[in-house]
Design a protein that fits this description.
Elements (H helix, E strand, L loop, with lengths): L2 E7 L7 H18 L6 E7 L2 E7 L8 E9 H4 L8 H9 L8 E8 L2 E12 L4 H15 L19 E8 L2 E2 L3 E2 L2 E2 L3 E3 L8 E3 L3 H10 L6 H19 L2 E2 L3 H8 L6 E6 L9 H11 L3 E4 L5 E9 L6 H26 L23 H20 L6 H8 L6 H5 L6 H9 L4 H9 L14 H20 L13 H15 L5 H4 L1 H10 L5 H22 L4 H7 L8 H15 L4 H13 L17 H22 L3 H9 L2 H10 L7 H19 L11
Helix pairs in contact: 1-4, 6-7, 8-9, 10-11, 10-15, 11-14, 13-14, 14-15, 15-16, 15-19, 16-19, 20-21, 21-24, 22-25, 23-24, 23-25, 23-26
Length: 694
């Protein structure tokens, strides 16, 4: 049989819906599994006014199962003579079993500690699914979570938006679900403007088609496909192309129930404004699709996705054009006001814009950026870039402009336009544009030297400042997008293969942070940044297919290792794993590391070596070490590991013929010192001993 649940609501924000659909599916799967109810597949659907789950092939009965209920400890259930106590009798009665049906089983009472407890082992045949389905779906509704919730009419329930009806069917039979004052039934409602009437649903199989007849496309993927097809039709009609935006397409598919694409037009005079400003008004503020010609130039038309029929297209277009014209007028006013004064003259106004409470203004941040950028210029490019100082001063000036205050997503973009209008050099114009790259969901990185320096400086200052103030990302909360900025830093450095490590990279920002916040524990901040960056790198490398043990080995001492070298280590480990001698190599390395006592700090004297095989091992290490170090310093970890392979034979001979733990403590410590020396050499290629054998 099939089961249907629809929760009818007031309009839920589009951004809530994708995650809510996934949560519904996971909750349904979990609850059915907990209740031993088999099913074939689960579909979740959503519109702004309804959340839907349809479960196909649901079993008529629960599966038979054995459930073990634990009672009190054995010593509390039986007296010294072995007779059951009141506790045992009460437990048996509560589980509806006879006293002689009680069993004694072991159970963990605390981590690693087990004790004996009485238990009732009950074989359940399984109830009809129809008898338990109400309980399952009542739990599902109350378990749903949203970024924000609300209460209504003094009911003791919370939801994304007020719940107005619930449709619940098990096969053709309604089942009871209650939420607040709403009790489930077997009806739903059509489109609130085009068919706002009750629709009786006789079976889950009828649901989707019944709503389609009432102008509701309940499947968001189908709505998205319809929108895409209608956009393509308009593109052909106008010989134009939509300014691609997959995110907008997804958003629009979740803000309506019956999509119809309409062409709206605006005055060609507005095309004199920067195209990014026009696109932002259309996309971010109105959810309209901008259009361009085949050469990439914007045209004075856009596509509006309406929640109505084609017959109403003229009225929709007229309303959209009126709203869009007003928004463009506002944008033009701000733009003209901004261009009345040069960008550089806006620099002092940054003093009135707070960066972070406790770290001063944006003006103060720019002063920090000056020092960080000078450092990066020398560290990354080994030169002082002549235009860098001016570029830094101009980089944040657009934050005080009217356009950016109204359209924050255009920071940097508008600054580059204003700089170009002021006659600034192409290098500065491009650098101002590149400072916020990469953008969310994009992989375009800064290309110019000044753009790279500005982008890195801004991001490392943001991370250091936020961590210094204790504003550290937790769970799903990252209000300052620090995770994305960390990934941006890593991406830029990896692409350009800069030889710089995180300790050096964050050195200047942390020094400046200490000057601004003397009470700040910089060592603690450094450790938290280290943990934060480790998480980002591990996630990146894991997504690229590297195994957990390879990542752990490569990340050894990663803060002091050029970032690109970590990647070179990983590639070397991946290639090493394909080597037929992989396990033998790991065994030799682990024999060295595992025998050294924790905290051993003994010295080593080569003149005190006694056995031939320990002398030979030492000589081979000394011969190999210079080549090995040179390869490590250049980031050639494949070559470095090939050097280490030359030691395997000598390491194995050493362990086969030499007693490390000699009774003579001086001999013992000297041999351990030799192994410690070898271990420290090997560690320069990463924590290889943490790699797992094939």
């Amino acid at each position: 049989m099939n089961i249907l649940l629809e929760i009818g609501t007031e309009e839920i924000p589009a951004r809530f819906l994708p995650n809510t659909m996934e949560s519904m599916r996971e909750l349904a799967e979990k609850l059915l599994d907990q209740n031993a109810v088999d099913f074939e597949k689960i579909y979740t659907l959503a519109t702004p006014q309804r959340l839907v789950i349809i479960i196909y092939g649901v079993a008529e009965h629960q599966k038979p199962r054995t459930i073990t209920h634990f009672g009190p400890p054995k010593n509390a259930a039986y007296d010294k003579e072995g007779s059951p106590t009141k506790a045992a009798v009460s437990f048996a009665n509560s589980k509806n079993i006879k006293i002689n049906e009680i069993v004694v089983l072991k159970k963990e009472k605390s981590p690693g500690q087990f004790g004996e407890y009485i238990a009732a082992v009950i074989n359940e045949k399984g109830l009809p699914t129809k008898e338990i389905i109400s309980d399952i779906f009542n739990k599902l509704i109350t378990s749903l979570q949203f970024p924000k919730t609300m209460r209504w009419n003094n009911y003791d329930v919370k939801f994304a938006r007020p719940v107005r009806w619930i449709l619940a069917l098990c096969g053709s039979v309604p089942f009871n679900v209650e939420f607040g004052a709403v009790i489930s039934n077997n009806f739903t409602f059509g489109h609130r403007f085009l068919s706002n009437q009750k629709i009786q649903i006789n079976s889950p199989d009828d649901y989707i088609s019944a709503l389609r007849n009432a102008f509701v496309i309940v499947d968001p993927d189908e709505r998205k496909q319809i929108i895409q097809e209608q956009i393509s039709e308009i593109e052909r009609e106008l010989n134009a192309l939509v300014v691609n935006d997959e995110g907008l397409l997804t958003t629009v598919s979740y803000i309506l129930e019956y999509p119809t694409a309409v062409i709206a037009e605006f005055s060609v005079d507005f095309l004199r404004l920067p195209k990014e400003l026009l696109i932002s008004v259309m996309r971010d503020h109105q959810k309209y699709f901008a259009l361009r010609n085949q050469n990439g130039t914007l045209i004075n038309k856009c596509i509006v996705i309406s929640n109505t029929l084609k017959e109403n297209a003229k009225n929709v277009a007229k309303g959209a054009e009126k709203v869009l014209g007003a928004r463009f007028d506002d944008a033009r006013f701000y733009f003209e006001q901004d261009t009345n004064t040069p960008l550089l003259e806006k620099f002092d106004s940054l003093k009135s814009i707070t960066f972070q409470e406790g770290l001063g203004s944006i003006y103060d941040k720019v002063q920090r950026l000056q020092e960080i950028c000078r450092f990066l210029s020398i560290s990354l490019f080994n030169e002082e870039i002549s235009l860098l100082n001016r570029a830094v001063n101009l980089s944040k000036a657009d934050l005080s402009t009217g356009v950016v205050k109204e359209f924050p997503e255009l920071q940097g973009i508008m600054g580059s336009h204003y700089a170009q209008l002021d006659g600034e050099s192409d290098e500065i114009v491009q650098a101002i544009l590149e400072q916020y790259l990469p953008k969310p969901g994009e992989d375009i990185l800064p290309k110019t030297k000044i753009g790279i320096i500005l982008s890195l400086a801004d991001k490392i200052d943001n991370i250091a400042s936020s961590f210094g103030l204790g504003l550290i990302p937790t769970g799903s909360k990252d209000p300052f997008a620090l995770r994305r900025q960390a990934i941006g830093i890593i991406s830029i450095i990896r692409q350009r293969d800069f030889i710089i490590n995180f300790t050096i990279l964050f050195g200047t920002p942390l020094k400046l942070l200490k000057e601004k916040l003397p009470q700040c524990n910089i060592s603690d901040v450094y450790e938290k940044i280290e943990f934060f960056l480790r998480q980002r790198l591990e996630a990146i490398f894991s997504s690229e297919g590297f195994s957990h043990d390879q990542i752990e080995a490569a990340m050894d001492n990663f803060m002091n290792l050029p970032i690109s070298f970590i990647y070179h280590r990983l590639n070397a480990y991946r290639e090493l794993r394909e080597d037929s001698g992989y396990n033998e190599f790991l065994l030799a390395v682990k024999r060295v590391s595992n025998i050294i006592p924790k905290g051993f700090g003994g010295d080593f004297d080569c003149d005190k070596l006694v056995e031939m095989d320990e002398k030979n091992l030492y000589v081979m290490v000394k011969e190999t070490e210079p080549r090995f170090l040179k390869l490590v310093e250049s980031g050639n970890f494949k070559g470095a590991i090939d050097c280490l392979k030359e030691l395997i034979l000598y390491i194995n001979k050493f362990f086969d013929s030499v007693l490390v733990m000699d009774k003579n403590m001086e001999v013992r410590d000297n041999r351990l010192g030799l192994l410690k020396y070898i271990h420290e050499v090997v560690k320069l290629a990463g924590n290889i001993s943490s790699l797992i054998e094939k």
